[in-house]
């Protein structure tokens, strides 16, 4: 489960790396698509990616949670995307739904952890579950101050998903710093967040 933010320190796509090292059988696209170029809210269709020679299954269309059919031949389901640290960003619920599917289908779930770009500060109200949706599924603060790996552990333990979860930790990460403190390029997690400043404004 990835998009253009899923890269290593040399900006090589995780999908390309895994295809070289393991039997990569499928890719799964969140909102904005596997290339990160689809507009907000646009439903994504599954398709065959000619460059990677793999089927890309959409998790932002009729299937938001991978079905057993979409997980056929999958032993380990991996998640590698840059989040923005805000409750209403759909990537974290794509992660949560995929964790549920991993539990239901007895598949290991692995999160490649990435920095919370706006740091560890916690702000805003808790979600009223009467308004639960794909832009707010769990009762967490608007700005939750966790990395995607930390959030996966929260979902798994505190909200009862209970899948076989492994988080691959980061090196050199400090929870008190925002993305500007790292020698990393800003890769837009979605079309309307082209800069770190736009991520801060998005949560204002």
- Tally of contiguous helical segments: 4
Uncertain residue segments: none
Shape: globular
Structure classification: alpha/beta
Mean pLDDT: 91
Write structural notes for this entry.
This protein has four helices and eight strands; from the N terminus they run H-E-E-E-E-H-E-E-E-H-E-H. It is an alpha/beta fold and 204 residues long. The protein has a three-stranded mixed beta sheet, with no helix packed on it. A three-stranded parallel beta sheet has the order 4-5-8, with helices on one face. Strands 6-7 form a two-stranded antiparallel sheet. Strand 2 (47-49) and strand 3 form a beta hairpin. The radius of gyration is 16 Å and the shape is globular. The model has no long low-confidence stretch (mean pLDDT 91).
Question: Can you give keywords for this protein?
Answer:
204 residues, 3-stranded mixed beta sheet, 3-stranded parallel beta sheet, 4 helices
In terms of topology, how is this protein built?
Layout: H1 14-21, E1 27-29, E2 47-49, E3 54-58, E4 76-79, H2 91-104, E5 108-112, E6 123-126, E7 141-143, H3 148-158, E8 165-168, H4 196-202
Parallel strand pairs: 1-3, 4-5, 5-8
Antiparallel strand pairs: 2-3, 6-7
